[in-house]
């Protein structure tokens, strides 16, 4: 029981990261119907910008943890937003009306480019971050002496993720910008006929998706204490799996799918084999695509006449 | 108000408009009739810049809009209620109207809302309902209401009677006349229902395979033998 609770806590923490990344996949898919395979690398860049910001702050002697975290988050969001915007502008916009395969291949190219660009600028080695938040609460102890711990870090991750997701959901549901994004998603031609600047709305969607991935990158860095240029590949595909599981195109689906994938991965590692946890996640991708292609919350894609 | 001069529009290699000339004067209701596939909707879409005219000129209120991007044209005083209604299905009725108000000053949103509810009282009761769950007639009303929210000087209506019961068709045409008379909105109306459209309109144009073949006042066209044979025989 105690072991189960501990795994659940760890799984939800990891799931929060996947959920944040998955939102970017699902939003871009919803609005222009393509899978942005460079999104995982945008997440990786978020982690790198965070660690660079941390080091720069160290140079200036700013070590107060809350301030450092806020600076890291803001810088990461700004820089990844810029990257997200550039990726769309350079790699996808010209292919908006091309056959579906073309932007997909362009996305893979963008992904390879981003990985190599970070590798060239930052080196291929792991970048470690010293633990800046440690300690936690001991929730319960079993008779065999196993203690369930909820780290302060995990609390911060869950609270931050919840705040970001609630704020983001409200923004999509209530603000004029969110309404324009939903309009583009539902009928782009009509949105244009009502005066929506569709190109601008799509750019903003990429920037927002990238900013959420930046938050995920920062959390990843804080949680694992290490980052390298290749980390976005696996995390990106797992977040993509989360988006598919939840129903690609659906925002709540991405969040729920992210949490589920995190929990499944951690449980598989905890109860079966940690060496094969990735296999477990990708088996889910295969099974969902075969048996539940619209996902848990997605709606069937009905072509309008 | 709207002047279309020698406009050619292509879909790929297919020439959909073959040099169309048309004019709409302030305060008029002008109707464009013609068979399926004649290019009527294409003309309305070309005015809105999607697709853009290959050659020719489109002038709105003295400004050449031929090469403007669609979202700028739609913010310059033109609105369209397109073919097939194109209601946002997963937005509420109110959100659909808010989308229509994008090009308008947010300060008179509630005033404009009351104004369209006065034309379409049924919509007022359905504000929180999702667009996709409305009936065909309600969706058509919502499409027109949505296009009115931007306070357009020129309203483009594409087949507002399509697929509706005769009683609702009469109601819609009555409201179109009211909109024109009460708000002074200029209307360019595309219709297959030539009888209703010509009775409503001040002037009309007949379009055949991408070109205007005939023009005149609504009454003249209604009395015209060719028009009667081609578009009115057997109906009504």
Q: Secondary-structure element sequence of chain B?
A: EEEHEEHEHHHHEHEHEEHH
Report Rg of chain B.
Answer: 17 Å
Oligomer: heterodimer
Q: pLDDT under 50 segments of chain A (min length 5)?
A: none
Largest interface: A-B, 19 and 23 residues
* Structure class of chain B: alpha/beta
Estimated share of beta-strand residues of chain B: 25-35%
Tell me the overall shape of chain A: globular
According to CATH, the homologous superfamily of the largest domain in chain B is: P-loop containing nucleotide triphosphate hydrolases
Could you tell me the radius of gyration of chain A in angstroms? Answer: 19 Å
Please identify the structural class of chain A as seen in this structure: mainly alpha
User: What share of residues of chain B is helical?
Assistant: 25-40%
CATH topology of the largest domain in chain B: Rossmann fold
The figure for the number of domains of chain A is 1
* CATH classification, class level of chain A: Mainly Alpha
CATH architecture of chain A: Orthogonal Bundle
Q: Could you tell me the number of beta strands of chain B?
A: 10
* CATH architecture call of the largest domain in chain B: 3-Layer(aba) Sandwich
What is the rounded distance between the termini of chain A?
Answer: 54 Å
Q: Which residue ranges of chain B are poorly predicted, with pLDDT under 50 across at least 5 consecutive positions? A: none
Tags for this model:
heterodimer; A: 305 residues; mainly alpha; two-stranded antiparallel ribbon; 11 helices; 4 strands; B: 236 residues; Rossmann fold; 2 domains; six-stranded mixed beta sheet; four-stranded antiparallel beta sheet; 10 helices; 37% helix; globular
